[in-house]
Write a structure and sequence with these properties.
This is RNA polymerase sigma factor. The chain is mostly helical and 173 residues long. The chain has 9 helices and no strands.
Length: 173
């Protein structure tokens, strides 16, 4: 058995020394210059040659045509498998893009809506005009037909009430 292993090793060394360079050049043309892929194909080809060492030792003539055929088939199989399934994409770049969690956002909006519903109509109107519609205190006072001081007061008490309501619901700022 040890004798066979040394014969296989000698065969592999001889195959590599004699055929690896020309085989790599051939495969590089097949894979469009992708050196890493070409090296993988050559390695796989020589591995298959090692698995078929007995058959290759019995063969007469050069084994290069056999190696070239195997390498070409490996390239074709790789091409077909890449076409058959979608290209895998590295998820790492996606992890760096901030994306809003829609569930958290929906829960926050529901909680805020519930807290808004707990306000009096006057306080809710003052908040809607100033915070949600972006009006100044004077503009909100005109729309609500109350003095600006009343709008400021209603906003102050509405925010305080909202803060308490949200704290009760377990929401912290």
């Amino acid at each position: 058995m040890a004798d066979r292993t040394s014969q296989d090793d000698a065969l592999m060394r001889a195959l590599y020394d004699e055929h690896a360079g020309p085989l790599l050049a051939f495969v590089l043309r097949l894979v469009g210059g992708d050196r890493h892929r070409a090296e993988d194909v050559v390695q796989e080809t020589l591995l298959r040659a090692w698995r078929n060492a007995e058959q290759l030792q019995r063969a007469t003539g050069s084994v290069r045509p056999w190696l070239v055929t195997v390498a070409r088939r490996i390239v074709i199989d790789g091409h077909r498998s890449r076409r058959a399934r979608p290209q895998e994409v590295d998820a790492a770049p996606l992890e760096t893009i901030p994306a809003a969690d829609e569930i958290d956002r929906a829960l926050r909006l529901m909680t805020i809506s519930e807290a808004m519903a707990d306000l009096t109509d006057a306080h809710r109107e003052a908040l809607v005009e100033t915070y949600f519609k972006g009006r100044t205190v004077n503009e909100a006072a005109e729309v609500l037909r109350v003095p600006p001081g009343t709008v400021r007061s209603r906003v102050f008490y509405a925010l305080r009430s909202m803060k308490l309501s949200l704290e009760e619901k377990g929401v912290t700022a």
